[in-house]
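Appendix B, example 12.
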Amino acid sequence: MKNLRAIVAVLLVGVLAAACSPTNERRPVSLREVSPPEGALSGKIAFVRETAVGATSLFVQDLDSGNVIELDVPGEFIDSPTWSPDGNSLAYASAGNDGITHIWVANADGSGAKQITRGDAPDAYPTFSPDGTEIAFASIRSSDESWHLFSTSVDGGGVEQLTSGGSEDVYPTWDPNGGRIVYSSKAGDDDYSLYSVDIASGSIERLTDDSEGEDLFPSFSPDGSTIAFASTRRDDVWQIYTLEASSGDVERLIGSDSSDRQPVFSPDGKYIAMATDHLAVYAGPGEDLPDGKLRWRLTDKPALSPSWTS
């Protein structure tokens, strides 16, 4: 049975990616980062941070005040927090002493934490449906012990399998317009590509080409028109790209040699937060930050898995 180490291996694939020769485009490096101007960003970002060897905790940063708090939720290993559409709750994966992660839901302040999936197989990477009533997640609970996508109600009532076959399906993100989920999958290939599954019919559509590198961590813009993701398709280093949902056009957001991954849009769609060593912010596709800087730094300490709510 694949256990917690399998989850960590998938999560940290970007962290362990090798550095490469720098690109010649606008390269955001630490010397060109500054703190966001006062009042430039709003809302809250949830993220995880290592607090001890093999242990992570859940944090929330208030972008209006700059305050960061650690939420008191059960589990020694917390992963992949994601806000509900109304911002009143957080879903996340949590592992206890047995090392098996399951999906939990808690109030925005960490209170009322409730485990909604159970079993002997790890569950990870939750994403809320647009109406907030369901959560899709990845698990190896099927008989082939490969990662596939499943869904359950927010109260944990029943589990439905959404994908199957010999693939490795991870990092689901629910289309804000409803009806489909985009995710990363090997689907029998050597590298991860982006796919979508139609909830009603179960039909699968391939969105990107695996021959161009690993494509992971898809995340929808609030209006559903754009998908941000991280890829190694250029220079063999993780960089942020966008995929236009209507045309399928892929564009690199910005050239970087700092291993950028796990992008997530701001609630107004103007910015993209992502994990490098720490958390940082780019402007949205085709834009520059208002002060002309290449990147704003959000955290000083290492952080992963950002999720942004208003």
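Helices lie at 4-11. Residues 4-16+35-309 form a domain with the Neuraminidase fold (CATH 2.120.10.30).
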